[in-house]
Amino acid sequence: MNKVILMGRLTRDPEVRYSAGENALAIARYTLAVDRRFRRDGEATADFISCVAFGRSAEFAEKYFRQGLKIAITGRIQTGSYTNRDGQKVYTTEVVVEDQEFAESKASSDSYAASHPHQNAAPSMPSPSAASADGFMNIPDGIDEELPFN
User: Which of 43, 109, 107 minimizes the C-alpha distance to 71?
Assistant: First the structure.
């Protein structure tokens, strides 16, 4: 079985490209900084995991994910290789995203962004007036067609 579950913060905004052809497919790439449970010399350490999402998941990432946002993903590890311009073989490992979701409320995300201003981490979501007092956004009626899950 090849199953991965990760929770971490985006190191930068997702990079989204579209495949060529009549039925263009969105492809989003992003890196998650996943904290390690144990600390080295009292300092927190993290692993930086490359992730790729396709189709509606990629479009969702493009629209809502921003640097510094904490998300949880599930997927599978995929390895590959290619030969670079110098003729050297390069090996790759990435997580192919099957499911992705927010791992904190909008209020928590905004709080994190305020305490880490050098990261410019405020996610681009609908206007703050759409958020209720608990920090979660009120979803308007009829938006079901735009969500990547049902």
Answer: 109
Domains of the chain as residue ranges with CATH: 4-146 (2.40.50.140)
One-letter amino acid for residue 127 of the chain: S
Q: How confident is the model at residue 57 (pLDDT cuts 50, 70, 90)?
A: very high
Contact 64, 43 (CB under 8 A): no
User: How many residues make up the chain in this entry?
Assistant: 150
Cα(96)–Cα(106) distance, integer angstroms: 26
**Mean pLDDT taken over the chain:** 82
Q: Are 132 and 138 in contact (CB under 8 A)?
A: yes
Predicted confidence (pLDDT) per residue in 84-126, tens digit: 999 999 999 999 999 999 998 777 777 777 776 654 433 344 4
Phi, psi angle pair for 60, to nearest 5° = -65, -45
Helices (H), the chain: 55-64, 106-115
Please state the φ and ψ torsions of residue 117, each to the nearest 5 degrees: -65, -25
pTM of the model: 0.70
